[in-house]
Amino acid sequence: MQCALYDAGRCRSCQWIEQPVSSQLSAKMSDLQTLLSDLPVAEWCAPIGGPEQAFRNKAKMVVSGSVEKPLLGMLHRDGTPEDLTDCPLYPASFAPVFATLKPFIARAGLTPYSVERKRGELKYLLLTESQQDGGMMLRFVLRSDAKVAQLRAALPWLQEQLPQLKVITANIQPVHMAIMEGEEEIFFTPAQALAERFNDVPLWIRPKSFFQTNPTVASQLYATARDWVGLLPVNHMWDLFCGVGGFGLHCATPQMRLTGIEISAEAIACATQSASELGLTNLHFQALDSTQFATGQQDVPDLVLVNPPRRGIGKALCDYLSQMAPPFIIYSSCNAQTMAKDLRDLPGYRIARVQLFDMFPHTAHYEVLTLLVKSNA
């Protein structure tokens, strides 16, 4: 993929961009096979990739520069700002939004925050697009609520220019640190969630709920999990670290009993709304810590699906799953190193199948889906 930002030395986020995607995939597969070299794998599935560019559904832009000439992008380690509105990872639909937001920042009087001087109000712009209808969610991350009324008064002009903005909020992040968002979210629109749809499954994106940034590959990830579960005798399933419910909603059938657990109440609200739309009354989503929930249960499900953050599921949950011994475990991971460590802490299971998903082209990162079967099953 050609990138003028990379060629000019202005951005090095895509460190593998000079390699063909086929070579990137081969390197990622080699890395995964090395990490699992001491664990027998019955079946290595072919890796799944997606588009080389314009695949992201989300932009997280640091706002710098001046109120009259804002820059949207990032700060280098020395504090130098870089405008990344031309990044080829963003779809073409983002360009007119960025172009409109720059004069809007001046119109609304939102002075970009200066890390060096600890002054200014506007820290980040967070933009998310739905693949379902092109609707967008825009979040202004502000240092305080001092400019909220001013922002609210200026919004009608922005909404007239950009009717695709379905959800608009201000997030208040007062801490002088590189933290993307704070606790307080102020909604400027009646809609508080962005409608999305993968594989005919309705999904909802709220401001603070995690959602995959590569919808093409994410939809294939969910569909693959659904296909794997469909081949197994599963009547009772747990979906731990479930997020907005993508895995559970794909895998569930009207007859299946499914419990989804996620620490984020916003994500659980999304999952519950989707289950209601699908008419799946045996799905129950709860905002709890996944490890605490699991280790407090006596009822053994047929299958436990885990989709943890980069730290993995940890030894406490591995030990409990080994003791509880459900017939099947599906492990979805964004960090194969911690997944490999966790799999070694599940000695009662054999690896039936592994598949790599290239969710992050031009970088060393990837997602993995692994099917574990109880050794005596």
TrEMBL record:
Keyword check for 4Fe-4S: yes
Chain positions recorded as S-adenosyl-L-methionine binding sites: 212, 241, 262, 307
InterPro entries in the cross-refs: 23SrRNA_MeTrfase_RlmC, MeTrfase_TrmA_AS, MeTrfase_TrmA_CS, SAM-dependent_MTases_sf, U5_MeTrfase_fam
Catalytic site positions: 334 (nucleophile), 334
Cross-referenced CDD domains: AdoMet_MTases (cd02440)
Residues engaged in binding [4Fe-4S] cluster: 3, 11, 14, 87
Superkingdom classification of source: Bacteria
Family annotation (SUPFAM superfamilies): S-adenosyl-L-methionine-dependent methyltransferases (SSF53335)
Keywords per UniProt: 4Fe-4S, Iron, Iron-sulfur, Metal-binding, Methyltransferase, rRNA processing, S-adenosyl-L-methionine, Transferase
Recorded catalytic activity of this chain's protein: uridine(747) in 23S rRNA + S-adenosyl-L-methionine = 5-methyluridine(747) in 23S rRNA + S-adenosyl-L-homocysteine + H(+)
Class of the enzyme per the UniProt entry, highest EC level: transferase
Family: Belongs to the class I-like SAM-binding methyltransferase superfamily. RNA M5U methyltransferase family. RlmC subfamily.
HAMAP family: 23SrRNA_methyltr_RlmC (MF_01012)
Protein name: 23S rRNA (uracil(747)-C(5))-methyltransferase RlmC
